[in-house]
């Protein structure tokens, strides 16, 4: 039989043998597997193909990364279960791929007995709690060549990394997490991000920052001059943002703004910065803002609640999973620091460093991006004094922080002093939170930050 490749695949659900030496230029032949995009959970029905790591005609081995797909929640790497040759990519980069539909065809060099297997999906980073580091002596580690290379480049022993992939396989995210936890350092970007980053305007790296951490102040974007309008579908995170913000618009927002004098905190931070950096963790103001919020939430649990409109129930959340709006290469994302009520300022800083490393390389996983209970948005690290933050449903409160400015103020003796002033803007769901509660919480948060030593009294 001489069959052309398209016909082979179209007319059979079973693996087929391609016999034609004319139409199949590679002399070697085997069954063709049509990999379907399997269910990646969270009710996700479609994803955007961010990047192919292979092209048609490439030879692949088991567990080699085939492509990276992006849902509205996270990035996921899809890997091969077979040794074989890529025969067809069903989508181009940036296309939307549907769960359950063919993604890639691979001509395998194995017998038909294994040809019924499904594709392998490597899930992104798991929650911090799941990453306990342990020595696995004598245990054969499973990782793709790319992941092994990444570990090698960063002097990481694979035996020390806990794999969160299928059957304990070590994923790229595991290496990133391991490195971020151990050193607070950033990895060299993956080829994909290297390409993307090289197209982005270069960012200003403050001299005092360790080279490993993401730069904070993006340079002015390149001007775009276009001769025609461009219309494109909203995809991935942007699509999720449209959905969430449309839902948020239904919430009656109560707003409250105040001014906080951070002069003492500025002095404390400069005392602690060196110590923290010596331990490999950058210490910005954010960990103090987050910890002060958590201490305040202990007194006002209604602000750390979630509202279920349909059942008209309010759930007071035990965990303070404090989200922080993050300006990432993929746009606005809101990862959260889990269980802040149990963490020291240093531990929050370390976790923040980890999230920033992942955010800057497009590696934030579902567990980092879900489960938030209260949010802070530090727009001041970009600029601006005031903001009008929008609540992230089902949360009920959010705070936006402006740029810290050195401004003249009077001290308690009536003397004119240089003060570090921060403006905070709170929004609360007025269906369940009244203005007085929001104001009392804000006062307490301000007191902790204006007299940071007082936080020590309440730290567990
Ligand atoms: N005012 C002045 N300086 C500030 C500041 C503020 N409000 N917030 C941070 N900085 C300083 C930091 O102290 C740090 O300076 P340093 O090197 O002297 O320590 C520098 O700016 C960089 O800080 P950054 O790396 O941004 O860390 P961070 O912990 O303060 O903030 C994020 C982390 C993730 C919140 C921040 O990087 C970010 O993405 N902000 C944008 C949030 C956003 O987009 N909000 C809008 C949502 S709609």
Radius of gyration equals 25 Å
Q: Report helical residue fraction.
A: 25-40%
Mean pLDDT over the full residue set: 79
The number of E-state strands comes to 20
Oligomer: single chain
* Basic shape: globular
Main structural class: alpha+beta
Q: Cofactors and ligands present? A: coenzyme A
Number of alpha- plus pi-helical segments:
11
Terminal CA distance? 75 Å
| Beta-strand residue percentage | 15-25%
Which sheet architecture does the biggest sheet show? 7 strands, mixed
Subcellular location: Mitochondrion matrix
InterPro entries: 2-oxoA_DH_lipoyl-BS (IPR003016), 2-oxoacid_DH_actylTfrase (IPR001078), 2-oxoacid_DH_E2_comp (IPR050743), Biotin_lipoyl (IPR000089), CAT-like_dom_sf (IPR023213), E3-bd_dom_sf (IPR036625), PSBD (IPR004167), Single_hybrid_motif (IPR011053)
Region (Disordered): 119-143, 187-227
Biased composition (Low complexity): 206-219
Strands, helices and their partners?
Blueprint: H1 5-10, E1 32-36, E2 46-52, E3 59-60, E4 65-70, E5 75-79, E6 84-89, E7 96-98, E8 102-108, E9 120-122, H2 145-153, H3 172-183, H4 191-199, H5 236-248, E10 253-261, H6 263-278, H7 286-299, E11 305-308, E12 313-316, E13 322-324, E14 326-328, E15 331-333, E16 336-337, H8 345-360, H9 366-369, E17 374-377, E18 397-401, E19 405-410, E20 416-429, H10 435-450, H11 453-458
Parallel strand pairs: 13-17, 17-18
Antiparallel strand pairs: 1-8, 2-4, 2-7, 3-6, 4-5, 5-9, 6-8, 10-20, 11-12, 13-16, 14-15, 18-20, 19-20
Helix pairs in contact: 3-8, 7-8, 7-10
This protein binds coenzyme A (COA).
Keywords: Acyltransferase, Lipoyl, Transferase, Transit peptide
GO molecular function, one term: acetyltransferase activity
Protein name: Dihydrolipoamide acetyltransferase component of pyruvate dehydrogenase complex
């Amino acid at each position: 039989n001489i069959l052309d490749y398209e016909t082979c695949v179209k007319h059979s659900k079973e693996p087929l043998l391609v016999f034609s030496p004319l139409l199949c230029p590679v002399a070697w032949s085997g069954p063709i597997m049509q990999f379907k995009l399997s269910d990646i959970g969270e009710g996700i029905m479609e994803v955007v193909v961010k990047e192919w790591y292979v092209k048609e005609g490439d030879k692949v081995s088991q567990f080699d990364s085939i492509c990276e797909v992006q849902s509205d929640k996270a990035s996921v790497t899809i890997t091969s279960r077979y040794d074989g040759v890529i025969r067809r990519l069903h989508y181009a980069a940036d296309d939307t791929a549907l769960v359950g539909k063919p993604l890639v065809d691979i001509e395998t060099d194995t017998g038909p007995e294994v040809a019924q297997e499904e594709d392998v999906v490597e899930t992104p980073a798991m929650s911090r709690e799941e990453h306990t580091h342990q020595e696995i002596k004598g245990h054969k580690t499973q990782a793709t060549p790319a992941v092994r290379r990444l570990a090698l480049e960063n002097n990481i022993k694979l035996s020390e990394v806990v794999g969160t992939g299928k059957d304990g396989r070590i994923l790229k995210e595991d290496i990133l997490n391991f490195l971020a936890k151990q050193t607070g350092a950033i990895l060299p970007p993956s080829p994909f991000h290297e390409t993307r980053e090289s197209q982005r305007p270069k960012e200003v790296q403050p001299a005092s920052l360790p080279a490993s951490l993401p730069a904070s102040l993006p340079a002015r974007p390149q001007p775009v001059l276009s001769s025609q309008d461009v219309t494109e579908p909203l995809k991935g995170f942007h699509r999720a943002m449209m959905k969430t913000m449309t839902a948020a618009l239904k919430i009656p927002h109560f707003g409250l703004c105040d001014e906080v004098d951070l002069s003492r905190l500025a002095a404390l931070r400069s005392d602690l910065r060196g110590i923290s950096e010596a331990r490999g963790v950058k210490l910005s103001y954010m960990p103090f803002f987050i910890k002060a919020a958590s201490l305040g939430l202990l007194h006002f649990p209604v602000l750390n609640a979630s509202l279920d409109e349909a059942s008209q129930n309010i759930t007071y959340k035990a965990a303070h999973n404090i989200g922080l709006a993050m300006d990432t290469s993929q746009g606005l994302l809101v990862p959260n620091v889990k269980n802040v009520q149990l963490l020291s300022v240093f531990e929050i800083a370390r976790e923040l460093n980890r999230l920033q490393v992942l955010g800057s390389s497009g590696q934030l996983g579902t567990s980092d991006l879900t489960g938030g209970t209260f949010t802070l948005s530090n727009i001041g690290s970009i600029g601006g004094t005031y903001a009008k933050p929008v609540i992230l449903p089902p949360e009920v409160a959010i705070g936006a922080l402006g740029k810290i400015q050195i401004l003249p103020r009077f001290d308690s003796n009536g003397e004119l002093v240089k003060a570090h002033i921060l403006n905070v803007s709170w929004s609360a769901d007025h269906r369940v939170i009244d203005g007085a509660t929001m104001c009392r919480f804000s006062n307490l948060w301000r007191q902790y930050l204006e007299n940071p030593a007082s936080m020590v009294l309440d730290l567990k």
